[in-house]
Amino acid sequence: MNKVIEAKGLCKTYIVNKHQNNVLKNIDLTIFEGEMVAVMGPSGSGKSTLLYCVSGMDRVTSGKVWFGGRETTSLSDKELSKLRLDDMGFIFQQMYMMKNLSILDNIILPAVKSGKTKETRRQTEERGKLLMHRLGIAEVGGNDINEVSGGQLQRACICRSMINSPKMLFADEPTGALNRSSSDEVMKELLSLNREGTTVMCVTHDPKVAAKCSRVLYLVDGNIIGEKALGPFDGTAPALRDRERELNNWLMEQGW
Amino acid sequence: MLLRILKKDLKRKKTMNIILLLFVIMCSMFAAASVNNIFAVTGGIDSYFNKAGVPDLMLSLPYDSELGKEIASLPSVTDVKEEHHLTVLDSGCFMLNGRKFDNFTNVAHMINSSERAIIYFDENNDELAEPEKGEFYATSVFSNDSDLKPGDTVALKTGSTELLLKYKGRFKPAVYGQSSTDYPYLMLNEEDFKACEKDPVFLHWAENLLFIETSDPEGVAAEYDGIPDVWYDTRDERKDIYFYDMVAAYLMMIISIVLMLTGFVMLRFTIGFTISEEFREIGVMKAIGINSGSIRRIYIVKYLAIAIIGSVIGFFCSLPLSAVMLKNISEKMVFDSGNSIVMGLISSAAIILLIMLFCYFCTRKIRKLSPIDAVRSGQTGERFGKKSIMHLGRSRLPSTGFLAANDVLSARKQFIIISLIFALCILLMTIISNSAETLKSNSITGLFGVPDSDITIGDISSLEDVFSGKGMKATVERYNKFFAENNIPASSSISIGGEYETFCGSKKSRLLYIISQGVSDDEFTVDEGSIATRPDEVTLTRKAMELTGAGIGDRIKVNIGGKERELIVTGSFSTFVGGGSAARLCSEYEHDVDKINNSFGVQVKLTGSRDKEAVEKYVRELKKLMNTEKVYSNGEMVETVTGLSSTMTSIKRLMMILTVIVTALIVVLMERSFISKEKSEIALMKAIGISSGSIIMQHVLRFVITAALAAAAASAAVLPLSSLVLNWMFSMIGDIRGVSPDFNAAEIFVFCPLILITVALVSSALTALYMKKITASDTASIE
Predict the structure, then answer these.
(1) Reading across the β-sheet that carries A62-67, which strands appear in turn?
(2) Cβ–Cβ contacts within 10 Å for residue B2, how many?
(3) d(CA B31, CA B35)
């Protein structure tokens, strides 16, 4: 399998009030094409920082990161922006959107900015509508962002992350602010995207979410101290129960 | 606990608080400077006259007249002071470094320093010191447009007198005009004055000026009115010499008020902005049970602290600003600065009160909001109109342009306010520019009582035939002959004015009668009715009609040159002459020149090409032929008379500087506020891969769009507004209606809007660079 992400000797240090805080310590990581990787760990272990560093949203203190074989740590801000716009998708715990744009316009904004495809604005809009239809939010396209539920908004964020057909999706606690049913819907969509070939890296606190991933990394104090391969998830309830049990046992071993 | 919340708030929301503080400083600075300016201007002349001791009545008598003693004995008169003035008829009698003075057109008056009837001031606004023997002070009319500097020695050579006088500096006389067509005044030491007095050449137009304190100025004046060579001015009439200066001062006042309003609007805007920023915290506080009153108190205390600090700083900053604003007019007048500090302090205190009032109204919403509404940034979740007007999918605009335009349309109120402020700034520049253009254009020369012409020969000696009694026609003929002999394709005309008692029924008034020779009556325009074309006809201004009570078709009586005449009013016209209290007689009228109160020299109308080049060519030629510098294009003449165009140009420059500063401040502060408020969106855009350059461009474009809209609105409004302002301004000087402004299209439609757009672009771009500090990973730390 092809490597989508590869990180070597990844370190991230913050200096706050003259105190050095080593958030990531010499991390080596590889994510392969088609994988759905969950990153778990206690609060403050460096999960989100790891996601931001490998996605190029944040600069690393030392170490190197490759995305699709291209080293990203030496890229300029502009090149990184282009890479994020064309080849990466992002979903955050807080459903950030541009408040002056409608839901549909928020979704198609990356496609219009990217110009990756040669399609017209109309065609882009149609594609955005199709995505929304697929995620079950077709009726809220013209709404403002404060006029929809949290679950609908998060699904709109997924649509936005998918509009440029990225190679990889980065999700930072995508279900953190949602109730169980909304959370299940969002995960269903992420799994479906993953099955269609999109690689996913997902930071989560929720074992139920992590159990749906093919691999789980466990981070403590900036180090990956464990890794659990769960294999592809077939989407059935009994399989999920088995995976959850297996994962919980493993997590207990890790000190969860 | 609340104090701790407040302390934390001040520290955490440092940027917004600093922005608010800057606006308070700006507002307080403009308010204090403007209020000071308004008081200085509105009460300016009265306070100056009081300071100088200007009396109730000034009566000019022949030099050796003994009437002063008689007037002093009148029951209503409490005090009479006399000031004898000697005259030097030609500027060429004065020489500096071997060169004759050629910078003033009128007769120079000399005052005996030991006989001063009022207080004269030096350049530093201190009482004028006594000149030593061989020294003199002079008004600006004497020194302007010459190389004269304090310490220079001026040779005075006239008649049998030869004097060397050392120039000590400029002085400000409250009661004498200081425009370049006014009389220059020289203050001499008593010994020098007495020496000149012995030479009859100085007595040619010499006068004995009485400064009379009386409870009945009109009554005293009426007693002596009509006596040959006697004229009078009441204290109020003397104020007319500052008409042009007051117009400039009122303009400055308008600018101050606009700047002050700008400050207030921005302040109101910023307070509303900062409070809306804090809705989430308000919601949290409400949710945990802190009552609305306590929450409001936090903000009121915070804004009170900012208001006090800002107002104090603003007050100190207003002192130099105020000085700059008054600079132009303070060159001629002495303003009472004693109250300015008190006025500044009062206005700074008013700013604090106003901010508190704003704050009270802005925080009123806190009471009405439920905790959850507040957490939702003041949104109740209900909306009855469409927020987004534009749709990205259907727009043809580039994405960055779309986002900028969409932002502007989504926050219409906010950007309309900014746009209005920008438009006001452009309008201030362009209206002043139009006023300056109009005041130096040939198109308004007719308002000075002269016919359509191109060149004015302003040398007083050009009217010697008129003065010597040969008549106006002889002067016109002499000049036409002179032009023909020297191959100058031109014809001449002269217009003079004399002030006479006029009666209509039992109503009596003083009007200035204008008569022109060398021109057909048809060349003069009327606002209503027709122009006087027969010797028994007269055209009046509307002001003159009000004064006399006569309408078109009525008859008025006037005594000119000892003959009583009855004249039929044929129409109304506009003019500056006589402050608008004027009448025009037909050119056929035989003028018995016993009084000349108004003259603009000889007007020259080119009969060939009348373009700018031709006018300049013949001005140069006439100067050479007549050996005088006092030949002007009509535009120059208007500027020389009013001095307003150059003042306007100075004000325009000041306004341009202020516009640049105010626009830059507004843009920097607003953009900084926007970045602070939109930090989450900026981080999000960066996270999804939109480049910093594109986001910066979006922010810059918002201001450029706003500035462009302002420029369009200002361009549409500038001409009608200029017309309003000009007519208002001119109506203060004379009786003027329906003047259309002259304008420099490139300046008002291109240059001024471009200045604003460029300042908006540069300031927003530089400020927007700050958003480079916001990174994509900041999405994780956004509240």
Answers:
(1) A19-32, A3-16, A62-67, A70-71
(2) 13
(3) 6
Contacts of B276 in chain A (CB under 8 A): none
> Ranked by mean pLDDT, which of A39-53, B274-288, B298-312, B364-378 comes out on top?
A39-53
Q: How confident is the model at residue A13 (pLDDT cuts 50, 70, 90)?
A: very high
How high does pLDDT run on average in chain B? 83
Residue B618 and residue B607: Cα distance in Å, rounded?
12
Strands of B49-113 (E only): list them: 57-62, 77-88, 94-96, 99-100, 108-112
How do residues B152-173 score in pLDDT, each as one tens digit? Answer: 999 999 888 889 999 999 999 9
- Taking the CA of residue A234 and the nearest CA in chain B, the distance in Å comes to 30
d(CA B268, CA B265): 5
3-state secondary structure of B258: helix
Q: How many CB atoms lie under 10 A from the CB of residue B430?
A: 29
Residue with tokens 């640049």: B660
Please give the pLDDT value at position B341: 76
CA distance A67 to chain B (A): 15
Minimal Cβ distance to A102: which of B388, B396, B686: B388
H/E element, A219: strand A215-220
What CA–CA distance (Å, rounded) separates B287 from B280?
Answer: 10
**B 326-385 residues inside an 8 A Cβ radius of A:** 376, 379, 381, 383
Please name the helix (run of DSSP H) or strand (run of DSSP E) that holds residue A225, with its range, or none.
Answer: strand A223-229
Cα distances from A118 to residues A113, A114, A124, in angstroms, run 12, 10, 10
Q: How far apart are CA B403 and CA B678, in angstroms?
A: 13
Q: Which among A77, A94, A122 is the nearest to B393, CB-wise?
A: A122
ipTM at complex level = 0.83
Q: Do A84 and B694 touch (CB under 8 A)?
A: no
In a mutational test of the A interface, the residue from B388, B688, B778, B779 whose CB has the highest number of chain A CBs within 10 Å is: B688
- Cβ neighbors of A39 (< 8 A, separation 6 or more) are A47, A50, A51, A201, A202, A203, A204, A216, A217, A219
Half-sphere exposure of B518 (CA within 13 A, CB side): 27
Q: What are the angstrom distances between the C-alpha of B613 and each of B337, B465, B606, B609?
A: 47, 31, 12, 9
> What residue type is A57 in one-letter code?
M
Q: How far is residue B705's CA from residue B691's CA, in Å, rounded to a whole number?
A: 21
Rounded to two decimals, the pTM is: 0.74
Question: Length of chain B in residues, anyone?
Answer: 783
Domain residue extents for chain A = 3-254
Residues B394, A125: C-beta atoms closer than 8 Å: yes
Top residue of A121, A153, A163, A173 to mutate, by most chain B CBs within 10 Å, is: A121
Measured CA to CA in angstroms, residue A95 lies from A49, A174, B485, B531, B741 at distances of: 18, 9, 92, 79, 57
Q: Give the per-residue pLDDT at B696.
A: 94
Report the chain B residue with the minimal C-alpha distance to residue A112.
B399
CA distances from B693 to A227, B501, B571, B685, B771 (A): 40, 76, 68, 11, 10
Kindly write down the DSSP assignment for every residue of A62-129, as one continuous string.
EEEEEETTEE-TT--HHHHHHHHHHHEEEEESS----TTS-HHHHHHHHHHHH--S---HHHHHHHHH
Q: Helix/strand/coil (H, E, C) string of B144-191?
A: CCCCCCCCCEEEEEECCEEEEEEEEEEEECCCCCCCCCCCCEEEECHH
Angular region, B518: left φ>0, alpha ψ -120 to 50, beta rest: left
Q: What angle do CA B719, B724, B729 make, to 5 degrees?
A: 120
Q: Do B777 and A110 touch (CB under 8 A)?
A: no
Which class would CATH give A3-254? alpha beta
> Is residue A221 scored above 50 in pLDDT?
yes
The answer to whether A184 contacts chain B (CB < 8 Å) is no
Predicted local distance difference test score (pLDDT) of residue B783: 46
